[in-house]
Amino acid sequence: MYNIYGIPYSMMQEENYVLTMSWSNPTCGSSETECYSSLPHTKDVRRKLLITGVILGFFLFAIAITALYRTCSNDKTQREYQARVEMFLDNYRSLNPTRYSYADLKRITNQFSDELGQGAYGTVFKGKLTNEITVAVKLLSNSIGKGEEFINEVGTMASIHHVNVVRLIGFCADGFRRALVYEYLPNDSLQKFISSADSRNHFLGWERLNRVALGIAKGIEYLHQGCDQRILHFDIKPQNILLDNEFNPKIADFGMAKLCSKDKSAISMTTARGTVGYIAPEVFSRNFGNVSYKSDVYSFGMLVLEMVGGRKNVDDTAENGDQIYFPEWIYNLLEKEEDLRFHIDGEEDAKIAKKLAIVGLWCIQWNPAERPSMKTVVQMLEGEGENLTKPPDPFSSSVPKRTSAGRMPARRLHQELAAISEIE
Length: 424
What we know:
The protein is of the alpha+beta class and 424 residues long. The chain contains twelve helices and ten strands.
């Protein structure tokens, strides 16, 4: 500190005395004053900001490089998938389905103005090739990808010619835009007539229902035995059965189909295929048996029972708890030899309804070995039904003996299988 006490007091007492003090900026080395310079602090802040900026820049650069790599990798993968689809289409050119451009589809459908419906894999539009030929154009919604559903449908349907299978007229593979062009069927799907909200107003009658069931059975039997390779559909359900102007049924939607040789008793699958409620138990778990053509038989059985009941097979809104799971309820009625409790007007209708119920219950046996082949099913449906034997209770041994699950209510087991499907 500076010492000002050495100034004589007499000088400070003078009237005109003015004390003036001044000094230059002190340096820490020659002064007792404590000197705090801001310079070192500023350097520290700048250094920290520089380090932070470098680290942040590095991370941003790394993120940009990663994003660029993934984009390029995805583009390359999609190009490979597209090349695979093109190679497949070249191989199937001899089967003569017509190839359309996306511009052709816009013209055929009048800019996609008349929508017929939507499904899991795309939207269907009504279109016209000429004034006389009406078609249904299915614009696939999952065109970005491997194109497996597209290849499945084109590869399967291009070689199929059967009155009970929808005819593929052509396809579109314009870049990543993919579509399928089918014959147009004016009466929509079977779903509309059996288990929709207004199905009571569209009841087909028991004789016609029997013809529809027989036509579907013949179509599936053709897929299993009438082609060079066995075709397993894996998604037989009312929404995939279309009806022409005479109510002849035609099987559609082969996006989940799988081909296998006829001498193969079982096929391998990595994931479950189909729609919950129609999927055979062995498709969920091999504890129930091997996946085979009998899996389609199970789906057909669930479809037939839905036709008999005019309702979904599982209905949690049913007033009577026993009726929640329809297949088990209908089996109990047959077991007790009670009348089937739905719209039946005469004896002939009752015979048809009972026959369809028995056929459906045979088809949904939990053990695949106990289910009939589709050829046998056709024979059962063509007969009068009087000689049909009552099937075993599908629900008394819901799980084969090699498992330890024991007796389980069918509805509960279906719910657990649905949960398995969601997990997978």
